[in-house]
Amino acid sequence: MLLQIGVRVRESLHNWGFSESVSDGVRDITDFIIAFALIALSYYVLKYLVLGIVRKISRRSSTTWDDALYSKRVFHKALLFVPGILLSTIAPYTLNEFPSALNWVMNATQIYLVFVTLATVNAFLNALYEIYQGFEVSKSKPIKGYLQVVKIIFVVIGIIIVISMLLGKSPVYLLGGLGAFSAVLLLVFKDPILGFVAGIQISANDMVRPGDWIVMGKSGADGVVTDISLTTVKVQNWDKTITTLPTYSLVSESFVNWRGMEESGGRRIKRSINVDMNSVKFCSPEMIGKFSKVSLVKDYVEDKEAELAIYNQEQGIDNSILVNGRRQTNLGIFRAYLFEYLRNNPNIRTDMTFLVRQLQPAESGIPIEIYVFSKEQEWAVYENIQSDIFDHILASIPEFELAVFQNPSGADFRQLRKLSPD
Fold first, then answer.
1. What b-and-e string marks burial along 101-127, b requiring 16 or more CB atoms within 10 Å of the CB?
2. Greater confidence, 257 or 9?
3. Contact 401, 287 (CB under 8 A)
4. Which CATH number fits domain 267-411: 1.20.120.530, 3.30.70.100, 2.10.60.10, 3.40.50.170?
5. How far apart are CA 400 and CA 51, in angstroms?
6. Tens digits of per-residue pLDDT, 145-173?
7. CATH topology for the 207-262 domain
8. Measured in Å, how far apart are the chain's first and last C-alpha atoms?
9. Per-residue pLDDT tens digits for 193-235
10. How many angstroms separate the CA atoms of 306 and 308, rounded?
11. Cβ–Cβ < 8 Å for 247, 337
């Protein structure tokens, strides 16, 4: 009924004395405007009905893929095809008196449909990524970079099609001319190309996953990987700053990935304490008696003392000279004590590397290194365990008549000055 308005307008203009061509032209314009208004109205009505139904279905269903499609506006973008298709169908019947305008409207509609296609594909790929993130495999095989490559390919194809429409040339003609611009394209898309190749290597070799703790000294990155895309990798450092790295730098440069530590179930404690060499000595009988009362090394001291007594007796050692034969030292017993103390610590794993060792003596004393693994990996808990261990070590060293090496401070010099004669 509304389309009859154009006919009535034509008849009125003809009755008023306008020529038939003018009357037909005004009729076509009127028909086009009315058709355009009807297309816009039908789009909004269809959008309201379809999206309402889809929203209800997605909320009631137990699956997540429909929620992802709706939240990423895939259906919203797909509905934009309706006005474009209707307009390209109706335009030839309403603008037949204006071939140039019809040609312009048809070209604009085709370009519009190309952009709607790109928007729909982009929304669908975003929804696909969100759906994939719900699977366990997404933690080890990120696909964001691959989807970005697909998006770039579609965008390039879309741009070629649009340019061909504007120039009135075949897309094949434009593709043939791309060879001359290959060097420029390689320069423009250098980072995406390098990122794509690096992404394949990272995924194939399982080098980095989102959630991994990595350290890259050159860039200052030290934190958790939050995102791996085609061209960049985002790392949230422990101070909550964000470091952005080129994806290909993870292939071209070295970095440390702490995932192995997290998967092992233990976290390494590797720290040493320096013992003053002047405090190391052979154990006297009084010291042996004292150390025999320490529950953690009681058996060790007694068994070792019996073993050494038998050896010295068999070798006819003169015990009046301390350096003759074999004797226990306070440092050796202290190392045995640390070994047993750590072995009985419920926070230390005994099924992993477990060492209490003496390092090369230096001007700062004799380093006694603890090399064990904590059961707890959480940073704060791990640091508390490590601190408790060394609190105990520092407090127990004097019990073995040993001293910790420490450079003299200003207070030591002032005390020395007070004790020195004037």
1. ebeebbeebebbbbebbbbbbbbbbbb
2. 257
3. yes
4. 3.30.70.100
5. 79
6. 778 778 878 887 888 788 778 777 776 66
7. SH3 type barrels. (2.30.30)
8. 121
9. 777 777 777 776 778 888 888 888 788 888 898 888 877 889 9
10. 6
11. no
Listed in sequence order, the residues at least 6 apart from 357 whose beta carbon sits closer than 8 Å to its beta carbon are 368, 369, 371
Domain parsing of the chain, residue ranges = 4-202, 207-262, 267-411
* Average pLDDT across the chain, whole number: 80
- Which of 26-35, 99-108, 346-355 is the most confident on average? 346-355
The two beta strands, 348-349 and 366-374, are antiparallel
With 0-12 CB in 10 A as exposed, 13-18 as middle and 19+ as buried, what is 145? buried
Tell me how far apart the alpha carbons of residues 193 and 157 are, in angstroms, rounded to a whole number.
17
- Match 């003053």 to its residue by tokens: 276
Q: The tokens of 44 are what?
A: 């909004």
pLDDT in tens, 10-47: 445 445 444 445 444 555 566 667 777 777 887 788 77
Per-residue pLDDT, 391: 94
Question: 77, 75, 74, 80: which is closest to 128 by C-alpha?
Answer: 74
Place of tokens 């640390």: 338
| Residue showing tokens 């073993």 | 307
